């Protein structure tokens, strides 16, 4: 019987570990902490990773993924769940069975396929499992443009294509879709599009020149999960999360020699120098 004696909402991330601390489970738990929710985790795979790339992947056996999920969900009142790197088709099936068995709600799916350096984080044959089995249980799915192309075949080359992408993703069964336009060539704005089958809501912020963008997708989806756990509706959760990720990118941390991590703790730090001065 899941119980809680605190007002602090419990949030769960089911994802891969990033030893470099910028993406994956580590980004998710930092984001939860910054949102004042209680973070819990199910680790699906370990990566040996830093700001230069992914140097190794070690998957967790499916029965131990189930053991972690059952341990958390049988004891705690999980208010929102986020999924990230799920590695293989077997592990996607395992996670969806767990979500269904425990009746988890507010499920935010970040359909992670590859790292910013192009390292595979999902086996190619698992794409169909994500599409057919995971997306139908999603409250909201948050694909980047590469993931949209892999899952739907729709190629987005400009903001005008975002609505076509949102419609194609919605047809796969999630309640809401947030298409992330971070990889668009627009130099002025970072435009995302939220869609529930009726409402198309554009969420845009000024584009930062910072190159510290490792973990942007993980951080955005975790922030949405934290906001849903606090009781926000999906449009509010997405808008507030967008403001958080924009601040985290703009502040940057300049850690490591490659694509640096975003600054999860930015709300506690002074405003950095102008964006142009930040660009490396
Ligand atoms: N340079 C930038 N300035 C401001 N916002 C950005 C920038 N780059 C990305 N974003 C925003 O960050 C969020 C994540 O988008 P992005 O497209 O980078 O996701 P992603 O590729 O899935 O991330 P990841 O590679 O970490 O999984 C979106 O809200 C996007 O608009
Ligand atoms: C464990 C894990 N999960 C997700 C990402 C995606 O993040 P990014 O695309 O910023 O490298 C990653 N690199 N590692």
From TrEMBL:
UniProt keyword terms in alphabetical order: ATP-binding, Kinase, Nucleotide-binding, Thiamine biosynthesis, Transferase
Catalytic activity: 4-amino-2-methyl-5-(phosphooxymethyl)pyrimidine + ATP = 4-amino-2-methyl-5-(diphosphooxymethyl)pyrimidine + ADP; 4-amino-5-hydroxymethyl-2-methylpyrimidine + ATP = 4-amino-2-methyl-5-(phosphooxymethyl)pyrimidine + ADP + H(+)
Pathway of action: Cofactor biosynthesis; thiamine diphosphate biosynthesis; 4-amino-2-methyl-5-diphosphomethylpyrimidine from 5-amino-1-(5-phospho-D-ribosyl)imidazole: step 3/3
UniProt GO MF annotations: ATP binding; hydroxymethylpyrimidine kinase activity; phosphomethylpyrimidine kinase activity
The keyword Ribonucleoprotein is assigned to this record: no
CDD domains from the UniProt entry: HMPP_kinase
Pfam short name (any one): Phos_pyr_kin
Gene Ontology CC annotations of this record: cytosol
SUPFAM superfamilies per the UniProt record, alphabetical: Ribokinase-like
Disordered: region residues: 261-280
Biological process per Gene Ontology, one example term: thiamine biosynthetic process
InterPro entries, per the entry: HMP/HMP-P_kinase_dom, PM/HMP-P_kinase-1, Ribokinase-like
Taxonomy, superkingdom: Bacteria
Matches recorded under PANTHER family: HYDROXYMETHYLPYRIMIDINE_PHOSPHOMETHYLPYRIMIDINE KINASE THI20-RELATED, PHOSPHOMETHYLPYRIMIDINE KINASE
Name the UniProt record assigns to this protein: Hydroxymethylpyrimidine phosphate kinase ThiD
């Amino acid at each position: 019987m899941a119980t809680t004696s605190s007002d602090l909402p419990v949030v769960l991330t089911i994802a891969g570990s990033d030893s470099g601390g910028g993406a994956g489970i580590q980004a998710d738990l930092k984001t939860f902490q910054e949102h004042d929710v209680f973070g819990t985790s199910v680790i699906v795979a370990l990566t040996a990773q830093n700001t230069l790339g992914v140097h190794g992947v070690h998957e967790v056996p499916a029965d131990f993924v189930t053991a972690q999920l059952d341990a958390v969900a049988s004891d705690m009142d999980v208010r929102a769940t986020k999924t990230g790197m799920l590695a293989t088709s077997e592990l996607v099936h395992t996670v969806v069975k767990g979500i269904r068995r425990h009746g988890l709600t507010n499920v935010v799916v970040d359909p992670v396929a590859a790292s910013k350096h192009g390292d595979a984080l999902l086996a190619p044959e698992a794409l169909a499992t994500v599409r057919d089995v995971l997306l139908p249980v999603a409250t909201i799915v948050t694909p980047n443009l590469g993931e949209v192309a892999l899952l739907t075949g729709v190629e987005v080359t400009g903001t005008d294509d975002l609505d076509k992408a949102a419609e194609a993703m919605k047809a796969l069964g999630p309640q809401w879709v947030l298409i992330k336009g971070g990889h668009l060539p627009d130099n002025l704005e970072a435009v995302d599009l939220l869609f529930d089958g009726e409402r198309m809501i554009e969420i845009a912020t000024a584009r930062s020149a910072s190159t510290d963008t490792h973990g942007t997708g993980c951080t955005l989806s975790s922030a949405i999960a934290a906001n849903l756990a606090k009781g926000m509706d999906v449009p509010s959760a997405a808008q507030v999360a967008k403001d958080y990720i924009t601040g985290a990118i703009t502040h940057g941390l300049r850690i490591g020699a490659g694509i640096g991590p975003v600054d999860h703790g930015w709300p506690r730090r002074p405003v950095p120098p102008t964006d142009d001065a930040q660009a490396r």
